Amino acid sequence: MPERVAIVGVGYSDVRSTTPGLSYKEMMYEAAVRAYADAGVNPRKDVDSFICVSEDFWEGTSIFDEYVPDQLGGALRPVHTVTGDGIHALACAAMLIRTGRARIVVVEGHSKHSDIRTPHHIHNFAFDPIYHRPLGAHPYHLAGLEMNRFLHVSGNTREQCALVVRKNLTNALLNPRAVYGAEVSLEDVLGAPPAFTPLGELDIARPADGGFVMVVAAESVVDDLAGEPVWITGYGWCTGASAVDSRQWGEAVYARLAAEQAYRMAGITNPFQDLDFAEIDDSFSYKELEHLEALRLCRPGEAGTLLEEGVTLPSGEFPVNVSGGSLGVGHLLEATGLHRVYEVVLQLRGQAGPIQLAEVERGLAQSWRNLPTTTGCVIILERS
Amino acid sequence: MTVRIKEWPGTALSSKDFETGRVLTVHHKPKAEYRWDAGVAIGRYLRELKEGRLIARRCNACGRILLPPRMFCEECFVPTSEWVFVKDTGTVNTFSICHVRWDMVRLKDPQLPAVINVDGASPGMGILHLLGEVRPEDVRVGMRVQAVWKSPEEREGAITDIKYWKPI
Q1: Which residues of B touch A125 (CB under 8 A)?
Q2: Does B37 touch chain A if contact means CB atoms closer than 8 Å?
Q3: Which residues contact A23 (CB under 8 A, 6 or more apart)?
């Protein structure tokens, strides 16, 4: 039986809309120092391996792996980069430990989105160059297409998507890490300038800068460390068909299959009952509803009703995105999944301050790799 | 063996075939623009370059003087302690004589990139820059050099505020 694995330290560099005073290296250092202090580890002596998540095109530097070790304390140590979401990297860390190759692994992700002057062009660069890009539409048209089909297939409504925006922006008002908290009415969201109809301007998560570092450890060393452990009991990831002309529009199959892997590993049969809360992808308002259904937290077509009944509110039976999600906190590129895990860890430790939920034992974090992907990952975290 | 083959199989293609559309391809020029925040350490480094000076950071844990400056010591993993000006003279650590430009044009006057250990910084710390006022065949590892600065009016807070390093 492989060893159990826990997150024993977390740290972040302040989430902001811009960070003109700090370089990405200084942001990473800030997050790392906090995580190592939390865990009680010295990265120069105690850490066996470092894993970063980054995409060269967001960074503006090829082979970006080369620029990460110094500010993490990883110079001349095993370091590698995963071009995926932060939850992919946490799964890698857990597996590295479970193979016996490492006992303590550091995972890092950051967004310095404000350094990118042409973000939509970089986004467009992820699209197929031969039969998609030449059409010339703004990359978010894919979200409009996806939303329309999802609403059509599931029976959820445009108004229910607006409710997601209102919930998450309201939740964000209390979260010190959230940039975009606001009091908005349903009319504000529905009356916002149309963007990629049915998607309106307020339905789109805005980007933010910020960095997250986590220390992951094997059970055999957890007791020697200072950080309060939160156990990683399940993880899974999945990528669907990339073809935009023939993918399964209207259902987040990648999230369903990733969740199935994670649930099986964690011994979860009824996610709604077995879990207490979740931080899930809401890069676009409809995605929260689509992902709720894919994660089997409700039956197909019922996500909107769940929201209307207040079940997913912080005061509800199954709070979703108490942090404010990406809509309220800001989208953090590859670090987005790590932010969600960070929120789950704080909740399980009872350290979430003004947004603390009562009596939570087990939480889920889920990420989607954003447009144009059908890639998602899921992680299950537990207090004991 | 190849001499026995009179006619190679396959279809011969010339650039003209591509230009005239006999072979179809798709062209895309990415629009990737960035504006990196230099941050605390490199921000100050650039500001001092504009003043015609080189500045470093000292780590009081290991005693090293780090150039270019950084707010953390990658060896000790502690915040660095103080700003230290270093000299604009140094010693060539290594160099290359570049006869070919990045677009493969051969150069009459080769470019001379060099790593220079800067006086006042810890051993192995310095700057990667260009050498000038020297014949390529005269460059040596261990050669003493000094920065040649642009005039104050020309300097803009960039690594190119130093034109090149010349032998002394």
Answers
A1: 30, 32
A2: yes
A3: B36, B37, B38, B39, B40, B41, B42, B43
